[in-house]
Write a structure and sequence with these properties.
The protein is mainly alpha-helical. The chain contains 4 helices and no strands. It has one domain.
Length: 88
Amino acid sequence: MFTCASITLLNNGGKAVTARLKEIKNEIAALLYEAKEIVRRSNKYEYEKAKAYWVGPINAALNGNPMWTMEMTIQKLDDKNDMAQNNS
C-alpha cells in the first residue's frame, strides 16, 4: 500500500526513491531478524524449518541471491538516476 510520502517520492524520482527503498530493505531485514529470533527461542525444530523454507529465501532476496536481489534493484535505479542527471 502506498502512503502519501511514497507517492511523493515516486513523483520526484531520483535519489529519494532509492533512499526510501534502502530504508524499506533495512526495515524488512530487521523484522526478519526479529521473526527468526522469536521462532528460534520458541522451538528449535520449527526454527530449522523456518530457516530452510522462508527465512533463507527472504534473506537471499535482500542480500545475496545470485539471481537478483533488492540491493541490485536499488543499484540499477541509482545508476539510471546518475545517468539521467549527467545527461541533463
